[in-house]
Specification:
The chain is built from 11 helices and 9 strands. It is of the alpha/beta class and 296 residues long. It binds ligand C2E and magnesium ion (3 copies).
């Protein structure tokens, strides 16, 4: 049986790996062209204040559709990171996001939150890339939030990165001097150490979707409550991710979670579509206001 399984594995997996390798090469070549041609689009997903329904921020989410077929970010971003292409792509996203949010900031006080990969953060000159995106929009630093995943923050404070703690802390501090806020993306996934929260100037926790309560089970709610309470007691303004139903929104309100985003409030939208939504709703999403309906 083992031999048969081994044979199978050869027959089944080897060609698949070859296809994957080929696909990988194809995507990286297409990405290189896309950078040159600026083939990307940024969509924006509202983040709402759970108490009022007001849009506090929008998350910039990169979209790429070579020849009209969308490729999911989770497929092309890791490849862009591997080839260093995320550096020019990320700089482009920052500039575009700062420009797009400018009028929403002026009209509704909305900030923009931009995902930054570890590769970008470690690139010398990252702070000047951010500052020039702000200057050219123009947008005040207080209207920009940078999302950095927990794993990047943890690895940069680890002993393995040599002088890591001070490097990243210094970098984040100089951004903060410009008013820029830092959010920990995918908070709660994979790390038991919270030490980095004490050492790094962090402003916001983006609570990973794994902790958005699905049902009303006590254990599940206990995790969500613990994370929300951690954020509240550290005076970090938590944002719950991937809220898809009114029940989930209501439970998060009961737990005193200040902010949320997810399909329940709005999908990520192209800038012009979001502009229409914000204009017609005056910056307060109707479906995001608390209801008086009790949740069982
Ligand atoms: P993320 O930063 O955690 O972004 C949230 C993801 O959740 C987005 O996926 C968003 O479309 C999705 N989402 C929002 N609401 C819901 C919901 O209610 N239910 C579900 N199931 N999903 C929801 P998206 O746009 O596919 O992006 C995936 C990841 O790609 C992002 O995760 C982020 O890590 C990365 N990414 C996207 N844009 C950029 C970028 O400009 N730069 C970098 N470095 N990474 C990016
Ligand atoms: Mg994010
Ligand atoms: Mg996230
Ligand atoms: Mg994520």
């Amino acid at each position: 049986a083992a031999k048969a399984a081994g044979k199978n594995r050869l027959a089944v997996y080897e060609p698949r790996l070859a296809v994957e390798r080929h696909e990988h090469m194809r995507i990286s070549a297409a990405l290189r062209r896309a950078v040159a041609e600026e083939e990307f689009v940024v969509n924006y997903q509202p983040v709402v204040d759970l108490a009022t329904g007001r849009v506090t921020a929008v998350e910039a989410l990169l979209r790429w559709s070579p020849e009209g077929t969308p490729v999911p970010p989770l497929e092309f971003i890791p490849i862009a990171e591997q080839y260093g292409l995320i550096v020019p792509i990320g700089a482009w996203v920052l500039r575009q996001a700062c420009r797009d949010v400018r009028s929403w900031h002026e009209r509704f006080g909305i900030s923009v939150t931009v995902n930054v990969s570890g590769r970008q953060l470690r690139e010398p000159g990252f702070v000047s890339v951010v500052l020039s995106a702000l200057r050219d929009a123009p947008l005040p630093g207080s209207a920009l939030i940078l999302e950095i995943t927990e794993s990047v923050l943890v690895s940069s404070t680890g002993a393995s990165s040599g002088g890591g703690v001070s490097d990243v802390a210094e970098l984040l501090s100089s951004l903060r001097e410009a008013g820029v806020r830092i959010a920990v993306d995918d908070f709660g996934t994979g790390y038991s150490s919270l030490a980095y929260l004490r050492h790094l100037p962090v402003d916001i926790l983006k609570i990973d979707r794994a902790f958005t309560p699905d049902g009303a089970q006590a254990e599940e709610m206990a995790f969500t409550r613990a994370i929300v309470e951690l954020g509240n007691s550290l005076r970090l303004s938590s944002i719950a991710e991937a809220v898809e139903t009114p029940e989930q929104a209501e439970r998060l309100r009961q737990l005193d979670c200040p902010q949320a985003q997810g399909y329940h409030f709005s999908r990520p939208l192209p800038a012009d579509a979001l502009d229409e939504v914000l204009t017609s709703s005056n910056g307060v999403l109707p479906g995001a206001r608390p209801t008086s309906r009790p949740v069982s």
